[in-house]
Amino acid sequence: PDPRHTGALPPPAAMAEKLRDLSQPIDVPVLDATVAAFYGTGSKEERSAADLILRDLQNNPDMWLQVVHILQNSQNLNTKFFALQVLESVIKYRWNALPVEQRDGIKNYISDVIVQLSSNEVSFRQERLYVNKLNIILVQVLKHEWPARWTSFIPDLVAAAKSSETICENCMAILKLLSEEIFDFSRGEMTQQKIKELKSSLNSEFRLIHELCLYVLSATQSSELIRATLATLHAFLSWIPVGFIFESPLLETLLKFFPMAAYRNLTLQCLTEVAALQFGDFYNVQYVKMYTFFMLQLQVNDVFQGKSYVFILSKAFRLNTY
Question: Which positions fall inside the Importin N-terminal domain (predicted)?
Fold first, then answer.
């Protein structure tokens, strides 16, 4: 629900003090009202009062212990996001100082909620923003726990992905996030040694991810899942061992989706990523075959005429790098 339409006002001073008392479970309706006031259309004073309370809560080192209680009892997306913000800060900066049982508790709770929400088509679509944020939290946990303290993560994820199409779609989103976090956004947040360790782990376990992607693209009829899988492949293609590309049906699979309007842009992004790779002369035959098929598609498919044709052809020149 949009808090701007609730008409909620900041709680009176006594209620504000009650929120700040974290020796007992936080009063979630009062927190909802405070968050609603912060995002609301009330007076500047009301927003300022709510802002002060929320900042105090964020700065309280014990506030993260209330997160599960808040997530279980609030129906307000902004309140849930506030709680997850608190949790994300703890994961980033205090994770290794937490007792093992608390770390495991967070890890298991976040994983369980993600599976619960993504196993049902209706809840997955309705709660997509919430699930996306939970995915981000999970990846922050992985940056600390995986691979040393969560060795089974990739096999577990791949196994879960095979249980339902919506779980699989979300697993693809998690894998995409993980790749982006390690290879694109990790600078400044992790040591070079940790980044190297994560890259090595992802590399060594990519076979399972590769097999999952190929299986999904050959078996599913879900356009959402196909798009999610293509987007995930795009995030991986710039760094995976080239054997996974040229010694498997991956290129043929990508080219199969290229003529389809719904997947053309994502497929083109993947092919462009492949074209930018440095792989010497060993795979030239496969590369030329890909390029020839690609150009043939541009010529024989009516769907590529006009502006669409010009756009794709201009992109295709980037492929001609061999």
Answer: 50-116
Exposure b/e, 146-165, CB count within 10 A at least 16 = b: bbeeeeebbeebbebbeebb
Q: Which one is predicted more confidently, 234 or 285?
A: 234
215 to each of 91, 158, 229, 233, 250, how far by Cα in Å? Answer: 34, 11, 10, 13, 10
How wide is the angle at C-alpha 268 spanned by C-alphas 249 and 311, nearest 5°?
150
Residue given tokens 């982006």 in the structure block: 180
Three-state DSSP state, 261:
helix
Tokens of 277: 């790779």
Residue span of the structural domain in which 196 resides: 98-240
Residue 259 in 3-state DSSP?
Answer: coil
In the block, residue with structure tokens 């992004």: 269
> What global pTM score does this model have?
0.87
Do residue 69 and residue 104 come from a single domain?
Answer: no
Is the domain of 109 the same as that of 175? yes
Task: Work out the pLDDT band at 72, boundaries 50, 70, 90.
Answer: very high
pLDDT surpasses 80 at 35: yes
Residue 3 domain flag: yes
| CB half-sphere exposure, 307, CA atoms < 13 A | 0
Q: Which of 198, 267, 191 is nearest to 229 (CA)?
A: 267
How many domains in the chain? 3
3-state helix vs strand vs coil in the chain, percent to 5: 75, 0, 25
Evaluate the CA torsion angle 145, 114, 209, 291 in order and state its sign: negative
Place of tokens 């690609």: 294
- Residue 319 covered by a domain: yes
